[in-house]
Amino acid sequence: MITFDDCLAFCELTEAEIDAIAEHEHLPETVALGMGSYLIRGPEGEVRIQRILLEDISAAQRRGDLVHAARLKETLRRFVEQHPACIVTD
Q: Cβ(55)–Cβ(61) under 8 Å?
């Protein structure tokens, strides 16, 4: 049986990035893993995932969840470092 961790090992994303996709798209983690794997390999996929992270940060800030927003910002920082197609934003 293939586990989530097995699939994650083949994906170019971290679990935190998958969690952000799941949150943004209202998907189970396993489905978000498939979506993230598809996006990261496609044209503009890195930029799309960056946008997802930015939107999740904004949503967390709007609802006053500053701890979650900070975690997402750290996830975004690491994502941008690993994916050069991303646009650096402050």
A: no
Amino acid at 21: I
Other residues' Cβ atoms within 10 Å of the Cβ of residue 51:
15
Q: Where are the domains of the chain?
A: 4-82
Query: Kindly report the CA angle at 52 between 61 and 55, in degrees rounded to 5?
Result: 25
Residue partners of 81: CB distance under 8 A and separation at least 6: none
pTM over 0.90: no
DSSP conformation class of 14: -
- Range 9-31 average pLDDT: 93
Q: What is the pLDDT of residue 27?
A: 96
DSSP string, 18-59: HHHHHHHHT--HHHHHHHHHHHHHSTTHHHHHHHHHHHHHHH
